[in-house]
User: Which sequence fits this backbone?
């Protein structure tokens, strides 16, 4: 365990760079904050590259120290600088962004332009709970600290699929593609048999027309009145719940 | 239409005070931001007390001017001060906080200590979509600008019930009370017949033990594995969806 008491320490400066997307992307690293999500990462076999803690005697620091991960004891002022949140209690871990895997013949949620990090993380959390793979459209930074926080460990309990397979590519491997739309779609029960990839768009714009048109089906969740609407993460989660329950 | 160009204008100072909870509570007023939610308020019969806009020629300003509501044209700097968000486009309206109504014999969601304003607003939005009344436990500031924003107009399309009826009081009027819990509860299908009040707690603590114990039933949403979890607003929304779909 090494002590760090200065915010000018080169390691601290390097971690702080990871608050910015362009550096996360260039270095293919990100930050995890808090014992819960760091523990989830460890349980899923992710290797911690560095751990920064206020208390090197705590369980997580001991566990990290038992691997090859260097553990640093930092002051509260340094923790404040390292963490992307306002009142951090730590610890902070640096990891390599896990490699995305290719698509498979399994239910999936496809995030197309979900811009709000809380919604993106919540969708990943629900995907883990309802056994859906997560397919990420380019431009969604699912490894940002905000998305990881809202994901509550779901990033490490579900399969994250890269390469942005479009509806035609998914159709080719036997997956029915379904656009989640606010009106004029089928009931979610009417989709299938076989695995379904649910395409969900951003608020308030929804899916781009060309994505909707390329999907095999459109699905709408009925509501109490025409002018009602749902949060994007709620709509995606209910659709996944319905698929999960019908298996 | 009166012009306001100074952030020291007494009206501007008075509106800015409403960013703080204690002033909202003392004055029983709150702020609405943006054309969508202000339009929803007007449609539901809410009277605007004041409207601040960058463009007094727009539809909403014209509509407000057609009522007794005073309309003020403000500069971008003043709008920045008035609005609770960072990059406001306006308009901003001041309203009296609508009075809560007594409970009735109808499905409801009961928010017990839901602390995150995004989650609280999302639950209200889903309650409107799935025809549930909203019962608010003391201490939840559902008329804060953040909650209203996440509610996307749901505040004006659902029935907000005050007086914090506890499980025993709801039971007395023939409503089955059901605690939403992460494990060991019944299936949501098994609750009823008749109206159900679903009690949902905060993350990560859930419902207080005494609230859970006072409910007639406990309900759990099955997930893919024991260690999975859902965002509180997602769990509440799925439970309401199930009730709504089963009617």
Assistant:
């Amino acid at each position: 365990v090494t002590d760090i008491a200065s915010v000018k320490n080169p390691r601290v400066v390097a971690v702080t760079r990871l608050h910015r997307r362009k550096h996360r992307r260039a270095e293919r690293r990100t930050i995890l904050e808090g014992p819960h999500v760091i523990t989830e990462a460890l349980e899923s076999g992710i290797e911690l590259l560095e751990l920064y803690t206020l208390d090197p005697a705590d369980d997580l620091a001991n566990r990290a120290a038992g691997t090859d991960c260097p553990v640093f004891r930092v002051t509260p002022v340094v923790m404040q600088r390292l963490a992307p949140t306002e009142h951090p209690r730590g610890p902070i871990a640096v990891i390599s962004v896990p490699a995305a895997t290719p698509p498979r013949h399994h239910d999936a949620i496809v995030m197309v332009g979900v811009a709000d990090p809380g919604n993106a993380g919540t969708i990943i959390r629900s995907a883990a709970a309802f056994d859906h793979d997560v397919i990420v459209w380019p431009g969604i930074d699912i490894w940002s600290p905000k998305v990881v926080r809202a994901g509550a460990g779901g990033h490490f309990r579900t399969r994250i699929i890269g390469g942005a397979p479009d509806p035609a590519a998914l159709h080719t491997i036997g997956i029915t593609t379904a656009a989640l739309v606010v009106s004029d779609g089928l009931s979610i029960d009417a989709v299938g048999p076989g695995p379904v990839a649910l395409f969900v768009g951003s608020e308030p714009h929804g899916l781009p027309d060309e994505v909707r048109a390329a999907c095999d089906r459109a699905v709408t969740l009925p509501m109490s009145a025409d002018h009602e609407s749902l949060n994007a993460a709620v709509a995606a989660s209910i659709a996944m719940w319905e698929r999960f329950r019908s298996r």
Notes: Residues 232-246 of chain A form the longest helix (15 residues). DSSP finds ten helices and eleven strands in chain A.
